[in-house]
Amino acid sequence: MDADKLIEIENELLSSYSKGGGVNHIGGPSLPSRESISEILYTIESLMFPGFQSDENIDQCILKYRTSEKLNQLFRKLYQEIKKATCLKNAPDKRASCQDCSASAKVKTEEFITNLTKVRDKILLDADAALSGDPAASSMEEVILSYPGMKAVTIHRIAHEFYKLKIPLIPRMMSEYAHSATGIDIHPGAEIGDYFFIDHGTGVVIGETTVIGSNVKIYQGVTLGALSVKKEEANVKRHPTIEDNVTIYAGATILGGDTVVGKNSTIGGNVWIVKSVEPNSKIYNKPIDYSIKN
Amino acid sequence: MDADKLIEIENELLSSYSKGGGVNHIGGPSLPSRESISEILYTIESLMFPGFQSDENIDQCILKYRTSEKLNQLFRKLYQEIKKATCLKNAPDKRASCQDCSASAKVKTEEFITNLTKVRDKILLDADAALSGDPAASSMEEVILSYPGMKAVTIHRIAHEFYKLKIPLIPRMMSEYAHSATGIDIHPGAEIGDYFFIDHGTGVVIGETTVIGSNVKIYQGVTLGALSVKKEEANVKRHPTIEDNVTIYAGATILGGDTVVGKNSTIGGNVWIVKSVEPNSKIYNKPIDYSIKN
Amino acid sequence: MDADKLIEIENELLSSYSKGGGVNHIGGPSLPSRESISEILYTIESLMFPGFQSDENIDQCILKYRTSEKLNQLFRKLYQEIKKATCLKNAPDKRASCQDCSASAKVKTEEFITNLTKVRDKILLDADAALSGDPAASSMEEVILSYPGMKAVTIHRIAHEFYKLKIPLIPRMMSEYAHSATGIDIHPGAEIGDYFFIDHGTGVVIGETTVIGSNVKIYQGVTLGALSVKKEEANVKRHPTIEDNVTIYAGATILGGDTVVGKNSTIGGNVWIVKSVEPNSKIYNKPIDYSIKN
Amino acid sequence: MDADKLIEIENELLSSYSKGGGVNHIGGPSLPSRESISEILYTIESLMFPGFQSDENIDQCILKYRTSEKLNQLFRKLYQEIKKATCLKNAPDKRASCQDCSASAKVKTEEFITNLTKVRDKILLDADAALSGDPAASSMEEVILSYPGMKAVTIHRIAHEFYKLKIPLIPRMMSEYAHSATGIDIHPGAEIGDYFFIDHGTGVVIGETTVIGSNVKIYQGVTLGALSVKKEEANVKRHPTIEDNVTIYAGATILGGDTVVGKNSTIGGNVWIVKSVEPNSKIYNKPIDYSIKN
Amino acid sequence: MDADKLIEIENELLSSYSKGGGVNHIGGPSLPSRESISEILYTIESLMFPGFQSDENIDQCILKYRTSEKLNQLFRKLYQEIKKATCLKNAPDKRASCQDCSASAKVKTEEFITNLTKVRDKILLDADAALSGDPAASSMEEVILSYPGMKAVTIHRIAHEFYKLKIPLIPRMMSEYAHSATGIDIHPGAEIGDYFFIDHGTGVVIGETTVIGSNVKIYQGVTLGALSVKKEEANVKRHPTIEDNVTIYAGATILGGDTVVGKNSTIGGNVWIVKSVEPNSKIYNKPIDYSIKN
Amino acid sequence: MDADKLIEIENELLSSYSKGGGVNHIGGPSLPSRESISEILYTIESLMFPGFQSDENIDQCILKYRTSEKLNQLFRKLYQEIKKATCLKNAPDKRASCQDCSASAKVKTEEFITNLTKVRDKILLDADAALSGDPAASSMEEVILSYPGMKAVTIHRIAHEFYKLKIPLIPRMMSEYAHSATGIDIHPGAEIGDYFFIDHGTGVVIGETTVIGSNVKIYQGVTLGALSVKKEEANVKRHPTIEDNVTIYAGATILGGDTVVGKNSTIGGNVWIVKSVEPNSKIYNKPIDYSIKN
Using one digit for the tens of pLDDT, what is the confidence trace for E71-94? Predict the structure, then answer.
């Protein structure tokens, strides 16, 4: 390839960058990066469950300093990413000196950090639910180290805090991180009660306006979704409500913002639900006839 | 374990390496490595969307040099991996000096690089489709940074270029990279039109000879597959054709090389299709009766 | 945030660590770490398929030393993680000096390493099955480098060895590693015969007490699960038996510890099975009527 | 090399490890590592001169958290290395549970950290001395970033604190780190007054019991050493005293514990001094006759 | 250490940062970092001597792209560091938007890059001088890979270019990098002719206004320095001139801006020279009488 | 800088690569790299002193496997670098297939590895010498971790083995590594007896044909060099012989291949010796008169 050709290709690409409103951020402050978001989640998980992620040998004497180090580190990294995410709404040349976004990022970082122990308490309840809900689970350690549902719910509880703080981009980047690692796709907007347990979990989708009660258990491939996906309906409740003590087996689909699954109900595998279900219901598909040829 | 026992185990393993035709490549040139393929995709993504992947602070003055640096780096890495993939067909002792594979790798690398801006243009259309197709999507940045469907389609558009260039191994390694990150499994051979959007996406499977029109939208768990999987049919069209403006909801299965879903059709969730469907159809499963026990 | 507030948050978190039985391991020996388990799997894979993972240029002269290096490294790392996992049952202050766990870890490491070539032989049969079972597969290299089913089965064969050795935590950490990378969730307890092939695989779930014969092929979204999930039934066979030469298509669900799919049977896509199936059966869902509106 | 030969070599080496009292620490707690000491120095330097070592972008809002993070990190790392260094005096099997060494390490870490700002103040005076003492120095930044004397004195001021706390090994590891980076070898025991400046510095040696006043300037190749090096004299003052405002030019050698260079003196290049020198002296070698042959 | 005490220490440190004009750069753009300067030198060396630094396997086909990649990378990194160094003279709040410094950095980066081949040509002459000047040197490869004098002179030739471009900080950071690696301290201002060779080199000091002719050879411990070091004389020639074909043996000291060592002269080991020397002189110390006691 | 100018610069550089015999190795096998040599030395040091370099926690149970792992790793890395160094003498196109160099590299690697314990034994004697020779040394650990002389002599003992095996490049790369880290420059050819101790060491130069007896101690700045440096004398003994039990103080210079310092002698600081010295001599400079001006 001669040099002229390569330069032509390069120029083509460069002019493509500035075409049509563009999608890149050259010259403005960087976007929050996937790497930073993943590091932030790692730090939060390590504050939640010290000693679980790596081999570091923490004795009691050091625990206080290690915790303080991680908290301050978390503050710094969060502040920086939140500031970037918040400031994207401004024109590029206004971002560097934007005092509003700095101030707002500081406040929101503080709010998140203030709630850390509360979030941890909730996550411990989820771990309890997994341990008591899966016959194969033999210890709390096993649940935390190897249950994808546990990982997805942990990250959701964190992402949901940022969602409530109305921080752009970051909650979705977190939920997508969890999705990539576990196959479980929970929109950070979903409101989920205590003792939530997802088993196996691949293919689970839980939409933005879903509301889930306490002590709910769901299996792989369950969708809690919307009936219609019109842009103009972005602000209404589009996803179902699941009340306390409901179990939903693998592959079930529950759709619609007005659909309520009443408390203590059981939804069988592959059941398709678009209307509300009374409390205490047990809903199973009638067996599909299949043909057997020997 | 005494030293003799360990040596015995080692010898067992060593002799196993050379047994039965073997599957390893000792002494010959290396295979393309998963690490290199992942680096190459990272570089291409960063050429597509500068400023999106990491924190690097690129000002306008530097953009040209940064782009040129990445383009040349991409050339080098691609050339090396393509050369390895191409040369595997030769006997190991012929590979080092194989001028044909060098020449061929160079030509194919040039062809890919030449099309880079065209591929980028296509990917931007996909991003538009995602932004307008999902009520929850609030910005182009969010789509690029956190939509698994966007990631899978981006990598598919890249892998498909290598597929068209008939390069062995590399296109499949790329599609498997995307599959691992997103749960979306698109064979690099699939031909996909503009404005393609996959929402959530876990469990989506799109086969090698699938043909997809413009402005198609599909949801998680959709399979576009083959009816039969006989080795001798590897070269015929085994997967369906989806025409323009079709929407396919979650969990639908469409099978067969002669199956055509006509334009403007909607395929409902979990529908199972093995025959062609007229344009403008709306196909939904009749509700399965389920038994309710309160 | 003033310093007092941050200290308050920190103290809250610190006291939360020691509350209610706790879930952390401060002061005791570390847990096996996810990073170590992933490195161990990488080393085993590289012993299984030398030359496949990275670019290292191994000539015949060096192969013996490289293999010996990796074997000894594997011994060291395995021993350390097994010792940690084994010793968790003891009170923290008894762990450091626990000679029993050292001895037991040594014996179990030796047993695993002794079987390495046998495990490799089994994995090569799986690769054969993939190569002959998928019309799109064009070479053994492609299967090993880019088939998620191959990766999941390889890791399962390894994790199952640790399961048989009754080592806590580690087998499940390995299977979850595979799940995260491939979307395929095989409990390390499952007994799987030779020539096993999973195509695409996202969403596959195979339970702990599943028994699978030789030459079985399954597709994405297949569940081999339990009918009931009561903690007190953890020790009975809860998952089905699949006999030799069975093919199970995408999305099928087979449940129950007494359910046997007889040999040479084919289970169609999305079929739901909770009772045993005779040998040589071909089972397909009767087509669901769907409504078409043009 | 056949396997037996390699095992023989290995066994030779293994038995050599345990021979003659040995010099290794297998089975006991690790020694302080060179890597840790270098990281600790990096952290301290970055607390001394924030913004000088790397590219991190610290705004005022974040400075407090960043500083707190580093301080806590420093505490943790220091504590761990000091504990290891302190505990070496015990028999290996007594180390793990040694409460005395933990307590002592904690106290000494606290003492060092408490003095951090005082040490910084002293180092800033040294930087002033360099800036005013070298005509080529054009800014404080240049002095801190590129003056080897500055680096050596900074590390000495730190190492000397650990020396005063009677911590084994660590002070000497720090001074050797400085020696390796700059060619300047200052024993951590040396007592050095304010405004100390070493120019160029390669080959400078300053012994353990040297005492140096304020405002002293020395050049490359200067030795402040001992006259005799008998092991039994390890506890007496063996190295010279240099009083305030003395300048010592390149290559001068000043030896002996009773040798005092009186204040305001200048010692010329290559001068060899083994007896005390009055205050206000200017001492130069009489020119050596050299023969010139044209 | 209780939390209050640590906060007190932290506040002490924080207030120390802002005291007395300070020496840190919080809130302004970062300083050029030592890490970046070392990477830049690595890149330049690898452009000078491709294939010498790492294991990368460059074939002819790739050389062009690799070179272009490195050149563009070099441009980017240089531009960024030069911009930082240039902008330090401005008040912190004026730096971010300083167009002058961007423009100036761009021009100076271009000038350096334009001269790259000329600098390389000069360095090759130095390598020739080393190869022919040292009986122990057996190949050009050995000289480039293992001669400290070669490394120091290479870096000096590079640093001198930046010195001529009047870029602050960076030239001195480069020369200190060389000093740290080799013990050879050459001020970037020194003007040095072709075919320059330093053997062993530890302790060599060459001052800012030194002028050295062609084909000069010097040994370890040689000082080419100033007689007096008054700040007000910073702009006059303070260091000696060494004419063509001069050899200076180990430990010799030559001082003063008016001191000229005439061409073809030889200066013996440890000779001390403060006055000019005629061309063609051979100057050796008369032997010092030493006392021998058997 | 416009694209044409950059291409011009690039072409200039590219054509410079091939000019005048060239000094680069494009297209041929790589040179031994500095990074590899440094890793090899790290591995050897860690085999010599297990537990000294990093934090790895080796218990007795694992020591055997760790040692075997390192030995095999060392074999592999050494073989590869020795093969590269050996094959440089061939024309580039003959290197890849050169069986002679493979065979020779294998034999030489084996020879080095066979002597490992012998070399370790010698190094332990040097450590003893340091411990007993320096009043400031308080433990074997301190000597190994922080004495530059110890590091330089350790690396010399290793490099000398490769020198004796007549391997090109590698011995000198090792000695230069030591020189860079310690300021001590020992040519790998020097023959050095047991119990050798260098204190401080910056500036020490020991030439290729130096012969040193047992129990010799030298200080910083000592040169054991050649009188004349003519290329044609490369093969004769050019450097002095130092017999048993000699001590040489700082800055002394001893030159010439016929110069012998007889056993039990002491050479004072800065003494300049070009003729042989009787055994049992004590040689000190007569004090130089210096002028004192108060």
Answer: 999 999 999 999 989 988 776 666
For residue B293, is it within any domain? no
Per CB-CB distance under 8 Å, the chain B contacts of E113 are none
Pair F46, F146 in one domain:
yes
- Residue F124 sits in the same domain as residue F148: yes
Distance from CA of A68 to the nearest CA of E (A): 10
**Preferred mutation among F33, F59, F65 to probe C, highest tally of C CBs within 10 A:** F65
**Do E136 and E168 fall into the same domain?**
yes
User: B184, B209, B225: which is the final residue of a domain?
Assistant: B184
Same domain, D49 and D135: yes
Q: Which domain, by its residues, includes D236?
A: 190-287
Nearest chain B residue (CA) to A205? B200
Looking at the fold, whether A46 and A162 belong to one and the same domain comes out as: yes
CATH number assigned to the domain comprising residue B222: 2.160.10.10
CATH number for C138 = 1.10.3130.10
Q: Position C289: which residue type?
A: D
Residue D35 neighbours by CB distance under 10 Å: 11
Is C136 inside a domain boundary?
Answer: yes
In a domain, A61, yes or no: yes
Query: Which residues lie across from D185 on neighbouring strands?
Result: D205
Q: Taking the CA of residue E8 as centre, how many other CA atoms within 13 Å lie in the half-sphere pointing to its CB?
A: 9
- Is the predicted pLDDT of residue E204 greater than 80, yes or no? yes
| Last-in-domain residue among A162, A184, A206 | A184
Which residues on chain A place their C-beta less than 8 Å from a C-beta of chain E? 6, 68, 96-97
Q: For chains B and F, what is the number of CB pairs under 8 angstroms? A: 5
What SS3 string covers F243-284? CCCCEECCCCEEECCCCEECCCCEECCCCEECCCECCCCEEE
- F21 pLDDT higher than 50: no
Contacts of D75 in chain A (CB under 8 A): 62, 65
Instruction: Specify the residue for token string 């956190």.
Output: B146
Give me the number of domains chain E comprises.
2
Considering CB atoms only, which of D59, D61, D73 is closest to A69? D73
- Within 8 A of F128 by CB-CB distance, chain D residues are none
- Pairing label, strands C260-261, C241-242: parallel
Tell me, yes or no, whether E158 and E206 share the same domain. Answer: no
pLDDT tens-digit readout, D199-247: 999 999 999 999 999 999 999 999 999 987 676 677 899 999 999 999 9
Pick from F57, F49, F224, F213: nearest CA to F147: F49
* Residue A14 backbone phi and psi in degrees, to 5: -60, -40
C284 versus F57: the higher-pLDDT residue is C284
Q: How confident is the model over E1-29, as pLDDT tens digits?
A: 777 888 888 888 888 887 744 445 555 55
C10 vs A67, A106, A269: nearest CB: A67
Nearest by CB to residue B96, choosing from F6, F68, F96, is F96
Mutate which of A290, A291, A292, A293 to disrupt the C interface (most C C-beta within 10 Å)? A290
**Which chain F residues touch D229 with a CB distance below 8 Å?**
133-135, 199
Taking contacts as CB-CB distances below 8 angstroms, the residues of chain E near D146 are 169, 172-173, 175-176
Is residue D142 located within the same domain as residue D167?
yes
Comparing F188 with D30, which gets the higher pLDDT?
F188
Q: Predicted confidence band at C176 (pLDDT cuts at 50, 70, 90)?
A: very high
pTM for the full predicted model: 0.93
Instruction: Indicate the Cα dihedral angle F208, F185, F35, F16, nearest 10°.
Output: -70
With respect to residue A7, please indicate whether it lies within any of the assigned structural domains.
no
The answer on E68 and E34 residing in a single domain is: yes
Residue E279 C-beta-side C-alpha neighbours within 13 Å: 6
Closest Cβ opposite residue D96 in set C6, C68, C96:
C96
Closest-CA residue of F relative to A2 is: F7
DSSP E strand boundaries for chain C: 185-186, 191-192, 197-199, 205-206, 211-212, 217-219, 223-225, 241-242, 247-248, 253-255, 260-261, 266-267, 272-273, 282-285, 290-293
Contact call for B66 and E79, based on CB within 8 A:
no
